[in-house]
Amino acid sequence: MEKRRRIGAYGVVRDGQGQVLLVSGSSAPTPRWHLPGGGLDHAEDPRAAVIREFQEETGFDVEVVGVRDVSADLIEFPQLGVLQHHDRLVFDVKIVGGALTPEEGELAGWIVPEDVELVPFAARVLLGEDLGNEINQRSRPFDDPAEPANRVRRFAAYGLITDPDGRVLLSQIARGYPGEGRWHLPGGGTDFGEQPTEAVVREVFEETGQQAEVGELLDVSFFHNPAAMGPEGVPMDWFSVRSVFRGSVSSPTSATVTEEAGGSTAASGWFAPAEVAALTITDLTRRAMRRL
Q1: Is 69 contained in some domain?
Q2: Are 195 and 96 members of one domain?
Q3: Contact (CB, 8 A) for 32 and 119
Q4: Residues near 138 by Cβ (< 8 Å), separated by ≥ 6?
Q5: Is residue 120 located within the same domain as residue 166?
């Protein structure tokens, strides 16, 4: 099957009586319900995307009040011959205006999640149920336009990793890569079918040689550089959505880059917070360090 990737942002809002605002694209006798939200436009802030999608699908104006979840799932489209990896960002939101107005041809309403059929993604977020991969019988083409050759859209996961002494684990970006020479949180782009937390464990080992345990989700942000220069010297329109998790290494060793030569990491090391202040670091690292 052809492999495709998509990044979406979704919102959760409750009415205080056990009901969640849900939407459905079907008016069948037994519709399947999901969270309001949808795909990000290129270079779009995920928080702006969930606000836009919420208004389009429910008629409500919302404000993002927190980050709830980041995950990935696979959706099979047999009639299209497509297997889609869908990175999903879930935010807690509150209603600040508007009125319930479903999108034309769709449904929206306040629903008790336990009383209806939910798509697998919504069941996992709202009920903690793992229903496996979704099979979608859609036969019409995807709404997402094809990406230009020089456009890169990436979903990445990083770790704010500490050891029992409070040191922070960082990696230095290699020459020829965007941000070269700066110290960065270990992490990087997720592989097809890989969960963000799995990507953090893999990337931490590749960049530093450490075995990390991943904890809570700390933040979600995005980065857009329409004139980034890749390692081959080819300009690219670079858009990255970035999730940051807290993590720890209980038995630290000397940090060593284990990935193949020519990769994006030049060096790695453990640093006391005071030492980090003297380094040239990325904006993502600076933002995460405020959590310590």
Answers
A1: yes
A2: no
A3: yes
A4: 77, 79, 80
A5: no
Do 126 and 156 share a domain, yes or no? no
Secondary structure class of 196 (helix, strand, coil): helix
Query: Does residue 199 or residue 131 have the better pLDDT?
Result: 199
Half-sphere exposure of 254 (CA within 13 A, CB side): 1
Which pair of structure tokens corresponds to residue 56?
């389009």
Is the distance from CB of 187 to CB of 158 less than 8 angstroms?
Answer: yes
Flag whether pLDDT at 74 surpasses 60: yes
Q: How confident is the model at residue 113 (pLDDT cuts 50, 70, 90)?
A: very high
- Amino acid 250 reads S
In a domain, 184, yes or no: yes
Average pLDDT of every residue of the chain: 92
Phi-psi region of 191 (alpha: psi -120 to 50; beta: other; left: phi over 0): beta
The residue-averaged pLDDT of 158-182 equals 95
> How far is Cα 112 from Cα 85, in angstroms, rounded to an integer?
28
Name the token pair of 145.
């336009």
Task: Give domain status of residue 141, yes or no.
Answer: no
Q: Record the tokens describing residue 165, joined without a space.
A: 């002494």
Last residue of a domain, one of 135, 163, 183: 135
Sign of dihedral through CA atoms 220, 225, 229, 232? positive
Does the pLDDT of residue 145 top 60, yes or no?
no
Position 208 scores a pLDDT of 98
Same domain? 128 vs 181: no
pTM for the structure as a whole: 0.93
**142 is a domain residue:** no
Q: Is the pLDDT of residue 47 over 70?
A: yes
Last residue of a domain, one of 80, 100, 135: 135
Q: What are phi and psi of 174, to 5 degrees?
A: -75, 160
Range of the domain at 207: 152-289
